[in-house]
Design the sequence.
């Protein structure tokens, strides 16, 4: 299993540009998450999904959109990039089937810079 | 909202010594606690977890202690090795299955 994969690894955007961060998992997990991590800080939840066709806002959803058309994929869309969105973005997946609690598996991250 | 924080932002230890990383949380409804290790340029990696009905859990060289009375969590690493150098995050999970992460502690192991 590849686990959670993210593309691209790095990206530089100009203010106002748009892009999609890709995330794929091959563990058949129901739950998927997008976090952002600012320098020296912990992770903040942007959006999450409990299954295909279902998405919900996290702590910091403004400026982002997501979709979950399949179990495997959970892309994150930035429509109008702003410097405040400069961060490292982590995708994670998890399943409550494995236990009563949600052990999340993280991808390697996408480092995004908005200039 | 939930506040999960760490007491020390950086911890420097000698190779072979034991390390203790602390974490305070504020939500008494948290029922699951996890420690993650994050190496430079990588995503967080699960280390060990503990449920609220336990106060201690041991893994390989790692022990997590939970004190629900004072809402405190600690990670103990025995015989710290250079490969343990990383940022360590605690996270709590509430009934909604969402994780709230602390700010992280950087562990530096001196050879």
Sequence:
């Amino acid at each position: 299993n590849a686990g959670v994969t993210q593309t691209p690894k790095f990206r530089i955007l100009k203010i106002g540009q748009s892009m999609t961060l890709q995330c794929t998992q091959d563990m058949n997990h129901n739950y998927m998450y997008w976090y952002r991590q600012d320098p020296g800080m912990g992770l903040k939840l942007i959006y999450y999904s409990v299954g295909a066709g279902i998405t919900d806002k996290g702590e910091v959803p403004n400026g982002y959109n997501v979709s979950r058309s399949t179990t495997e994929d959970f892309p994150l869309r930035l429509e109008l990039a702003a410097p405040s969105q400069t961060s490292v973005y982590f995708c994670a997946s998890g399943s409550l089937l494995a236990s009563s609690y949600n052990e999340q598996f993280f991808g390697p991250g996408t480092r995004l810079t908005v200039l | 909202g939930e506040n999960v924080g760490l007491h020390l932002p950086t911890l420097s230890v000698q190779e072979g010594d034991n390390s203790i990383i602390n974490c305070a949380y504020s939500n008494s409804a948290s029922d699951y606690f996890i420690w993650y290790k994050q190496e430079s340029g990588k995503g967080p990696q699960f280390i060990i977890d503990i449920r609220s009905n336990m106060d201690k859990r041991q893994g390989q060289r790692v022990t997590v202690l939970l004190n629900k009375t004072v809402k405190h969590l600690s990670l103990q690493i025995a015989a710290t090795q250079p490969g343990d150098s990383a940022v360590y995050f605690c996270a709590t999970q509430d009934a909604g299955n969402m994780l709230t992460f602390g700010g992280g502690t950087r562990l530096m192991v001196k050879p």
About this structure: Chain B has no helices and eleven strands. The first strand of chain B starts at residue 4 and ends at 5. The interface with chain A takes residues 1, 4, 9, 31-32, 34, 41-46, 49, 51, 89, 93, 97-99, 101-104 of chain B (CB under 8 Å).
